Amino acid sequence: MGATFEEIKKSSPHIKSKNTTTQIMIDVLLALMPALFAGLYFFGENAAKIVLISVVVSVVTELLFNLITKKPITITDFSAVVTGLLFALTLPANTPIYAVVLGAFVAIFVGKMLFGGIGKNFANPALVGRLFVVISFGSLLSAFIDPIDGIAGATPLVAINAGDLSSINLLNLFLGSTGGCIGETSTLALLLGGIYLSAKRIIDIRIPLIFLGGSAVLAFAFSGSINFVLPHLMAGGLMLGAIFMATDYTTSPISDLSIVIYALGCAILTMVIRFFGSQPEGVSYAILLMNLLVPLLDKYVRPNPYGRGAKNE
Amino acid sequence: MHGGIHYKSNKFLTFNEPIKELSGFKIHKFNLYGHIGSPAVPVVKIGDKVKMGQIIAIGQDKISINIYSSVSGKILDINNIYIIIENDFSDEYISLNKLENPNGTEILARIKEAGIIGMGGAGFPTYSKYETDKKIETLIINGAECEDYLTTDDLIMSKYSAEVLQGAILLAKILDIKNVIVGIEKDKKEAIKFMKESAKLFSLKQNIDINPKIIIKPIKSKYPQGAEKMIIQTLTGKEVPFNSLPADIGIIVNNVHTAYSVYRAVFFGEPCIKRVITISGRAVVNKGNYLVRMGSSVADVFCSAGGASYNSKKLDIYKEFAKGRLKACEKLANKMHATEDLKEKKQIEIKLKQEIKDTNREIYKHYVIAVDGCENNLVKILAGGVFMGIQIDEEYCIEARTSAILFLAESEVENHVPTACINCKKCAGVCPVSIQPMQINNYAEIKNFEECKKLNVMSCIECGACSYVCPAKIPLAYNMKMVKKSVKNLAKIKNNFL
Fold first, then answer.
1. Which end of chain A is less congested by CB atoms within 10 angstroms, N or C?
2. B471 to chain A: which residues are within 8 Å by CB?
3. Quick check: A1 contacting B, CB < 8 Å?
4. Which stretches of B115-160 are DSSP H helices?
């Protein structure tokens, strides 16, 4: 704003909290570790390759963008690492490497840097990357490896959508020994990460709570049976999306009412796509669509400032 | 209150320290602009002899105050801003006459005469708040003291609880206010205890019909609970409408020290010449709560409070010592190179090696001694608290609105270079007036001040909570202040064209 650093040093307040952007990103990475380890445990070497390549491509893309545009280097705040890791966790373990590379590149380049870097993304960058991969290489992603017997087959979510609960083992869903994308299988690991982030006040816990709560209610309403609720919550990318993607700072709204609208919207869209859409999984689309709605929410649904109650001058 | 922040409190440094008196300073400087409103006008000339408690400047216009000398002595100099008095240390004192049973009008006149201003830090002339024709239902006595390091109000409430309540009753009498609520943050347990006891005694003694009802209400410890608008909201549930005064909704707020000073002014005839301040911060030795005279300089106060915790002279001495020892080694090395004789060269080489070993050990020993405590090196002096106080130097002189002088060390301040906003919205989450600093910041960067006004930047109370919590270390509070100035100028420009 035109103020020199000297002037800022003299201005109040003269103390600040110890929190920094880098610290927040490191905490998110820590929270993702359980999910990462679960993915590596269940899906082994393939998963490790995908995660590594995704993170490296993300960081390198951001670095090259910084250098070519002659702007300050921003990779030291670790946000590119977070995006790379999140993107990798949304992919199945047998995704071809070229798809991973292109997807990570699109996630950072289009989803983040083209719009101004951190804090200026219009949607969750990891989901932008995943959307690109799904649209471009969709057929390659439909075959998921079951971690137990190594045979390719349908994911639990596909079975649930077909109305077939017989192959569903709730414990397996919870621990993660089922088919699916690298980071989304272990509900337990994701919950651990979510609790860590909520305790550290890094994510707004209302978003995952309302998102998951709303999804549970709709799963019951649309299926007509309470047996479908837990499977729907634990299968697919709902846990990963609700805890780590929908809570992304830039693309979640400010006021209390907006947050409720946002999280409910995510829940409704997810369940509608799952039950009535042609795709088995609706989480990515739901979150992306609600991301796009956030600027509108922030403009029209604002809290009343102090002293401006009902009257307005 | 919406939002607000918790912080790790440093009040433990001074909250147990009893009030000590500091006086005996040679030069006192009285700021003619040390309050909100028009500056006071001097009524003395250079060379005049004045007594302690004698009036030296008179308030002019509707909102202004009288200024009294806090020492007896001679007027050294008068310039546009200050009256400078040289203390003769005789403490010859003249007071105003003591009022025994004053009515509301007499109390108001005495407050105006004595030059009492808001002693919580705002500096608003107290009498001005009472010159209203609105019906006032509630008098709030503000004992929140939400700023870090400050323990002034805490001590006043613990030690002078009866006097504070007496002062509150006097204030209530001016406008026949029926309810007095004293808001105290919950962490001040002693203060709450003493105030509750005194309030009970008063309610037993007084006539319920003519005297106000006094309630002591503990409130949650959160910054900025003690801001006028915030404490009104917490204690009464009402919000002061934008661009209005608390009086417009039937409320007046006064600080506890102000109430105490009112008591002194009415019953003892004492004008506003002394106040209790907190001297704290790790860079000063004797942290505590001190009764100081108005006009004392920060340099004098610093010395009286024991001076610096860390003596940076130690570092200079160390540097000299290290230089000297290294020079000795250098001399020996030169001697070695100059010698032709191989045997002598060998001998000097052995001596040199030993000398270097000894030198390194000695230098390190002295280094450890020199930097011991250097984290307490004075880097910043503040008048007020750490959230809303202003940075000052040793020349600054205590005014009636100075609630604390903080001598901050390196470990207590931090300077981070701002990085990019990540839109975490923490600033909006902690803002007590529910505005969105980062949105306002974005529009300010492209100089769209119309939009900033629409985003209610003028509601900002400049508490600094947003800057405190921002992980990108963006100076949001500073930016908000600048934006408010620009918006005010916008209005001026608009009016000029209409």
1. C
2. 17, 19-21, 23-24
3. yes
4. 126-130, 152-159
Within the 42-61 window of chain A, which residues sit less than 8 Å (CB to CB) from chain B? Answer: none
Contact (Cβ atoms closer than 8 angstroms) between residue B93 and residue B53: yes
Asked if A50 and A91 touch (Cβ cutoff 8 Å), the reply is: yes
Give the integer Cα–Cα distance in Å for B60 and B39: 7
How many Å lie between the alpha carbon of A155 and the closest alpha carbon of chain B? 35
Domain extent listing, chain A: 21-299
Consecutive H or E run containing B484: helix B476-497
Whether chain B has a CB inside 8 Å of the CB on A5: the answer is yes
In the block, tokens 């040390």 appear at: B34
Tell me the per-residue pLDDT of B46-73, one tens digit each, with 9 for 90 and over. 999 999 999 999 998 889 999 999 999 9
C-alpha distances (whole Å) from A313 to each of A97, B342, B453, B456, B457 are 59, 96, 12, 11, 14
Strand partners, B138: B179, B251
Pick the CATH number of B24-273 from 3.60.9.10, 3.40.50.11540, 3.30.2310.20, 1.50.10.20: 3.40.50.11540
What is the average per-residue pLDDT within B305-331? 88
Other Cβ atoms less than 10 A from the Cβ of B8: the count is 8
From A15's Cα to the closest Cα of chain B, the distance in A is 6
Identify the pLDDT of residue A312: 38
Q: Where are the domains of chain B?
A: 24-273, 313-372, 426-497
* CATH fold label, A21-299: Ammonium transporter fold (1.10.3430)
Q: B412: which DSSP letter? A: G
Chain B residues touching A305 at Cβ < 8 A? 242, 433-435, 456, 459
- The answer on pLDDT for B448 being more than 60 is yes
Rg over CA atoms, chain A? 20
**Cβ(B224)–Cβ(B461) below 8 Å:** yes
Percentage of chain B lying above the pLDDT 70 cut: 99
Grade residue A311 by pLDDT with cuts at 50, 70 and 90.
very low
| Residues contacting B265, CB < 8 A, separation 6+ | B96, B110, B111, B114, B116, B271, B272
Q: What is the pLDDT of residues B397-434, one digit of tens each?
A: 999 999 999 999 988 888 888 988 988 889 999 999 99
Q: What is the pLDDT of residue B468?
A: 94
Contact B473 A9 (CB under 8 A): no
Which of B223, B240, B423 best tests the A interface by mutation, with the highest count of A CBs <10 A? B423
Q: pLDDT of A136-184, one tens digit each?
A: 887 666 555 565 555 556 677 777 777 777 777 778 778 877 777 888 8
Q: Which residues of A touch B239 (CB under 8 A)?
A: 306-307, 309
Q: Tell me the count of A-B CB pairs closer than 8 A.
A: 139
CA end-to-end distance (rounded Å), chain A: 29
**Paired strand residues for B139:** B180, B252
